[in-house]
C-alpha cells in the first residue's frame, strides 16, 4: 500500500527539494481523529524527517492549503509552528488533499509531559503557551478565506441535530444566550489550542499542531478552551490552565504578551461555552457508538463523560470552577 504513496510523495517533493529525492521509512502514526498522519524521511544530499497529513475534504475542517497559509502567517507573527514544505487541497497527487511539514522532535502525550515537568518547567511552559496564543492572535487573518461563526449557536445546532438534548445543557444554552457579553475584536483563532495538540521538548513549547479548526473569532475562545477540565488531564483544579498553572496566571501572561486587558467576566462566559462545547462533543462521540456508525469502546467511554461535563457547566453557571 505504501509503495505507490512513496513514489507519489517523491514526485510532490521534487519541486521543493530537487530532482532525485527519495522517500524512505514511510510509516503511519497513531492518533488524529479527522486526518491521517504519516512520518517519513526525504533523502537528497541530506536526510530530512518530515510529516505528511492527509484526509478527505469536508465541511467542518479547514482545507490543507488554508491550514498551510494560516500556519505560515502564525509563524510570521512569532508562533512556533512546523515549516510547511507543500500543501494541496486537490486529491490528484496523493489520492487525498495533503500537507507536508518538518517533523518536530518532542513529546505530545500530556501525562508524560506533566510527569517530566517540575514547578519551574510548568511555569515556563504555561507562559510559552500564553505567548504562542498571543502570536497566533496577532497573525494577519485577511484575504485567505477564514470564516467567522457564532460558537454558541453552532454547538446548539449540533446538539439539536442529535435529537437528544439534556436538561442541564438545554438550560445552559438558554442562560448563556441571555447573558452574552459584548463582542470583542475578531482575530485568527486556532480553534483547538490545548495540551495534546502541542509538542514539548527540553526547552518547553516546540510547536503548535492541528490547525484544521482555524477560523475567525474572539481571543477568549482559544483562552477558554485551553482551560477546561478535560485538558488538565487529571491535574488539580489549582492548575486549571492546561494542568500547568492557575487560570489567572495564564490570563495575566497572555495580557502581558498581547498588550491588552482581558475582561474576566467575558472569559468566564467563554469558559462555560467551552465546557458546554466539550459536553456536546462527548455526546456526539457516544452517538457514533450508540447509532452503530462506529462501534467503539473508546467512544462509549467518552460518552460517559457527558454527566461529568453537565456538572462542570452547572458549577460554572453557579459561580464555581477555577479562578
UniProtKB/TrEMBL annotation:
* Taxonomic superkingdom: Bacteria
One Pfam entry for this protein is APH
Extract the CDD domains matched here. ACAD10_11_N-like
Q: Which InterPro entries match?
A: ACAD10_11_N, AGP_Transferase, Aminoglycoside_PTrfase, Kinase-like_dom_sf
Question: Which residue numbers delimit the Aminoglycoside phosphotransferase domain?
Answer: 26-253
What is the recorded name of this protein? Acyl-CoA dehydrogenase
Q: Where does this protein come from, organism-wise?
A: Mycolicibacterium pulveris
Q: What is the lineage of its organism?
A: Bacteria, Bacillati, Actinomycetota, Actinomycetes, Mycobacteriales
